[in-house]
Amino acid sequence: MSYINIIKIFKMRNLLFQITNEKILKKILKNNYINFYCGFDPTSSSLHIGHLLPLISIKRFQKLGHKPILLIGESTGLIGDPSFKKNERKLQNKIKIKKYTKKIIFQINSILNKNKNNNLIILNNYKWFKNINIINFLEKIGKHFFINNMINKEIIKNRIKNINKNISFTEFSYILLQSYDFLHLYNKYKVFLQIGGSDQWGNIISGINLIKKINKNKVFGLTLPLLIQSNGIKFGKTEKNTIWLDEKKTSPYKFYQFWINTKDSDVYNFLKLFTFINIAKIYKIKKQDKNKKKPIAQTILADKLTYLIHGKNNLISAKRITKSLFNNKLSEMTEYDFYQLKQDGIFTIKINFNNIKYLQEILLISNLSSSYNKAKNMIISKSIKVNGKIESNIYFKFKKKNLIFKKYSLICRGKKNYCLIYWNNSKI
Fold this sequence. Notes:
- The protein is of the alpha/beta class.
- It folds into three domains: 6-224, Rossmann fold; 247-332, Orthogonal Bundle (Tyrosyl-Transfer RNA Synthetase); 346-427, Structural Genomics Hypothetical 15.5 Kd Protein In mrcA-pckA Intergenic Region, Chain A (Roll).
- The protein has helices at residues 3-12, 22-29, 52-63, 74-79, 94-112, 126-129, 134-140, 147-151, 154-160, 169-172, 174-189, 201-215, 252-260, 264-274, 279-289, 297-327, 335-345, 359-365, 372-380, and strands spanning 18-19, 35-40, 67-72, 121-124, 191-197, 220-224, 348-352, 384-386, 389-390, 408-413, 417-424.
- Homodimer.
């Protein structure tokens, strides 16, 4: 399939933000597949949902026969990219970055190389930077970068114009390292295209210019849009915390809930951006949703992405938990389901069974009630459920039979106010 089709697909799906020399690139790709790359710096032990757009965009190229190279920046991760950062980044620990690198390589493989037969290459830039001589690097690479141009780049200019915000030479040199990455990948792997987020445009252009100066050849860059939700909040940012792709850091249930709670004003665009559903079908879903009390778009989005990142079993688990909580029927939930709720799914308190057993006390501790009197009235008015069943006894005391898997109890006030009790020392 020709590149013009990819451009068309990206434009139809609102995926294309900026691209260099589109006409020339079309000619090159008219009858050829290309090698392209996208970089990820290992600044944490997991990627997060902010990385989903480049990952899925890579998969789109991959599906059309193009060869992706994913570059893990162990070396650049030690330096820190200053792009659109207000403050100096803290330098990372070498041992920690190495551990992060291994975890992210494993994570990317699990997402993009599930069948073990895709044409995916994952590289680590530490492999070539570890042996570079600083004098040779400055002589051969540094001479092509002019301070006048570098300080006029928006990412640098915004930092140095503020006397209270410094930028170190370490961060300032990041652009040289990333540009060299592109040069190295072009020389060794014939990489003609770099893709990245919109904040990477300046770094990508610098790499393109370096290759042009040294090799006298044209290479290309493409950036994806910065996603702003309809409420004005940058995509991937939540009021509470980051949504990670590692199930140990964000449970599949919470991941699923993030997507199921997508606003109607965002969901159809997200279906274009994050799924492989045909555009015509997305418009059909949108049309059908107008005539339904409960739209299906959010469920489709949550199903597709949870399956992609966490697999079939975790999707089934997330849907089972969602259904069980909605219907107040907990009998179908597994112990792993409760573990996910404890991890980050709902508010959880840990209580020593030998100290507190009375429902009224727990309503106060869990902040489901602000006083004993209110707690008592809630119980009398049948507003409290214990393990999915209404509890109207004001003297209710937790016993062994009220513990699910011998360590959990679920309290609900009204329809949506939950508290999971994790009983410590649950011996009666």
